[in-house]
Amino acid sequence: MSNLLEFRPKRTYDFWKTLSNGESIISNFKDNFTINQVATTIWNLINGKNSVEQIADIVSKKYNQLKHTVLRDILEILLYWHSEDLAIFNYHPLYKLGQLNKNLPGLQLDTIYSTNTELIYTAIKNAQQQDLIVTGSMIIGIPGESLESIQKTFDFGYKLQREYEANIMVAWFVPYPGSYYSEHLADYQVTLINGKDYDLYSTLYPNIIGRNMDLTTMRNLYYDNMIKLMSGNKAKTYMRNIDLSFFKYKTSYLYKNEYVYEV
Predict the structure, then answer these.
(1) Cβ atoms of residues 75 and 4 within 8 Å
(2) Long-range contact pairs involving 257-262 (C-beta distance under 8 Å, separation at least 24)
(3) Where residue 211 falls among pLDDT bands split at 50, 70, 90?
(4) Phi, psi of 70 (to 5 degrees)
(5) Residues 72-98 as b or e (16 or more Cβ within 10 Å = b)
(6) Partners of 47 in the beta sheet?
(7) What is the mean pLDDT of residues 220-242?
(8) pTM of the full predicted structure?
(9) Neighbouring residues of 254: CB distance < 8 A, sequence distance ≥ 6
(10) How many other C-beta atoms are found inside a 10 Å radius of the C-beta of residue 252?
(11) For residue 129, what pLDDT band results from cuts at 50, 70 and 90?
(12) In terms of DSSP H, where are the helices of 84-214?
């Protein structure tokens, strides 16, 4: 229970309507749900910053109820909203899916992924019906990721490419100065490869390493998968015929939309 109290839930979509009687209508873009005044209060508080315990404190004081009673109701409604893709139970810039899966029985990673991917499939189909060319840009190497999760991202890209004829580009995460990650990398036990010399950073090259992710393995995983993805992309002009063999031995830079290599 103590872990759950520290979770910081967040609305999946900031998309709802408040009624004159204090109730609200919330939506996951597939179904609409009418919630009462108490649930509306909770809904307004789940912004990814308030913890479950903080929300329980506010609600119990506002409605003059015992905290443990309110807490039970909050957990129940959050689980329901999560199952309906209305809220993320434990939001974080990393969204710790592994911890979430461990602490919430019945919520499996595949269920969470399938909910999000189905929305993407639908969006691509809608775009193609309007004769639009779809290009997907994905980011890998975010602190907390594993080699397995990176490969899963590539596998998702292959599916979009093979079954939906989307063009896919996958880029490495860069902890830009002033961003959340640049200030909290130590919290995730990762190290900057080039320190804070941001001129050396590239979206085509790993920028951080963690306990279970060494530089060579990550670089070669990217190389092998990008070769496969590029061969399947129909629109290659934006890649400027990059010779990916450089990636195994040299650091790449992105300068004025042209790729420059340096030993």
Answers:
(1) yes
(2) 259/204
(3) low
(4) -65, -40
(5) eebbebbbebbebbbbbbbbbebbebe
(6) 10
(7) 66
(8) 0.49
(9) 202, 203, 204, 260
(10) 16
(11) confident
(12) 97-103, 109-129, 147-164, 180-184
Handedness of CA 54, 57, 60, 63 (dihedral sign): negative
- Phi, psi angles (nearest 5°) of residue 35: -120, 150
Rounded CA-CA distance 209/193 in Å is 7
Q: Interior CA angle at 234 toward 232 and 240, to 5°? A: 95
- CA 218, 148, 96, 34 dihedral sign is positive
Q: Please give the single-letter amino acid code of residue 37.
A: Q
Structure token digits, residue 202: 């590239």
Residue 73 is encoded by which pair of tokens?
A: 């109701």
Residue 13 · residue 29 · CB < 8 Å: yes
The Cα angle at residue 172 between residues 171 and 178, in degrees rounded to 5: 115
For 215, the enclosing helix (H) or strand (E) is helix 215-232
Distance CA 113, CA 133 (A): 24
Separation between Cα atoms, residue 3 and residue 104, nearest integer Å: 11
Q: How far is Cα 238 from Cα 24, in angstroms, rounded to an integer?
A: 45
Burial of 29 (0-12, 13-18, 19+ CB in 10 A): exposed
Closest CA to 38 of 72, 2, 4: 72
Contact 232, 161 (CB under 8 A): yes
- CA atoms of 141 and 213, how far apart (whole Å): 9
Over residues 82-105, the mean pLDDT reads 62
pLDDT digits (tens, 9 = 90+) for 15-60: 788 888 989 999 887 888 999 999 999 999 998 889 999 999 999 9
CA 186, CA 77: separation in Å to the nearest integer?
34
Angle of the 67-83 helix axis to the 52-63 helix axis, nearest 10: 120
